[in-house]
Amino acid sequence: MVIAPDVRTITSAAEAARARVEAGRLAAALGAPEVERARFLTALTARLREHLAGGGAELTLTVREGASGEQRLMGASVRAAPPARPATDEAPPWRLTLACPGSTRRGASLAAAAGRPVDAAQSVLGADEETAAVLRRLDQVETLVRLHREELHQTNQGVLALHAELAAAAATQRALLEAERTARAQAESARRLLAFLADASAAVTASLDHEDIVRRLSGLLVPEYAGQVDVWLFDDERAAGATARPEAALAAARTDRPQHTGPDPGAPPRAGGHPRSAPDASGSVLSIPLTTRRTLGVLTLTAPGDRYDTDTRVMLIELARRTAIALDHALRYAQHRDTAEALQRAQLTDLPVVDGLRLAARYLPATRGLNIGGDWYDAFTQPDGSLLAVMGDVTGHGLRAAVIMGQLRTALRAYAVEGDGPARILTRLHRMLRHQQPNLYATVTIARFRPGDPHVVWAAAGHPPGVVRDPGGGVRVLDARPGVMLGVPVPFEYRDHAAELPPGSMLVLYTDGLVERRTRGIDSGIALLGRTLAAVDEAALEDLDRCAESLLEPVAPESERDDDVCILLCHVPAVAKRDPARSRPPQQTGTLSATPGAESRRGSAEAAGRAGGRRQVL
After folding, report:
1. What digits encode the pLDDT tens for the residues 158-180?
2. What phi and psi, each to the nearest 5 degrees, are found at residue 393?
3. For residue 498, how many other CB atoms are within 10 A of its CB?
4. Average pLDDT over residues 244-269
């Protein structure tokens, strides 16, 4: 609803000024805010000035009630005056609305405010008041802007500080991540070095052959940890002759400390003018003494890269220490093995020469482990002209077993001098061992052959049964139940057993090393021996040496021999031919001696024994 429309024509500046003043009074009467009122009047004045330049303006002021009844809207409409406006001009007028939160009580004074005369002084003062209000508003705004600027500056400072903290935190995080990556890389490198050390240690300590240990060590280190590996063992060099060695190796041998040299001239240690010194390799060289109870030699490694880092050096030094222990064990084992084998062979006697019986024996040491000593064979005549063939095995291995074997062999010969049979001899040996060696046990088989008797009398103390090959090629096992092992702490009387042994037959006595394996039971081994013995050609029996070879190779190959092997072949010829050389009586010198040709055969047997086993054929 339009309350007070007012339409007037403005043709001069004075009229425009009066119209402006009246519009200001009306806006003030309606309670319009000073700043909004000044903004309204300024826009109205600018529009009237434009139209005055064009010939005049028509101003319409209206007041309308707001939708809520508590607000009034003051409107101003300006367009060109009729004389200056073409008749056909239908352009819309310029309009401007001012919201006035005035009350209805002011409605009665609107007409009075619009009809009062205009006072120029009052108009100017009123304009100044409006300007002052705008200035005050500007001051407030400037104050607020300053406060906002200060607050924004503080906020910016806080943001910059936060950014600095975030940047520092990011740098710290990056440093922590880098440190974590480095630690993980170091941990992985350490894990890899420890894993290699464990695997390499297990590999080098699994062997008891020092040459095999050196080969394994070289295969483990090349090419990842060394471009070249050289193991200098002092004992081997003394045996093979001196050779030139790098200066680092000589310094390590002299000082008994690791030496790490590089390509720079200041790093390599000097050898002090050692006559056997040689220039070091062009790359980095690490020489480590192999020391246990004594220094065995020097391990020299050529680095695959520029130099060895600290962790790798520590790992290689530890590996060298463990390798030295393995080499020391291997060398001591070899020495112990050689001593035991030498003692064992020294106690194996030559076989006697008798009419009507051909003998052949072989002794082969174990090729795995220190399983040497304790197995023996023996054959000797009794005062009544009979021959005793003995096969025995002492429990245990090494020097002690070899020594006890010699004692047992000597006691057996002493008891046999009285002419006792196999069972009686075993009974007396059993009593002796129970009394003198309560912790020693042995298995023994004794077979007695009488000239012209087609039978063999035998007794066994826990020993594997003998195997007989009949003239037609049939094989039978003397499987009568044996007695207990010698030395078992129970009293026992052994019994004699008799088996037919016609001409052309052969009795095979052996130790368990021939037929028993970790992967095969003794019964299977005896069956294999029987099949091999049955397959022997009749013509091969004329050469018992070749016959023994043909039995040993398929039954006890060298690659599977983890225990001593003794075998004794007792062959009764089909036709007894008297050989003058065999008919000469033995030379009695307190012990039974062989025929004159026995010494040469013993020498050849010892030579064959050094090649892999003892061989005797008579």
Report:
1. 999 999 999 999 999 999 999 99
2. -150, 115
3. 13
4. 75
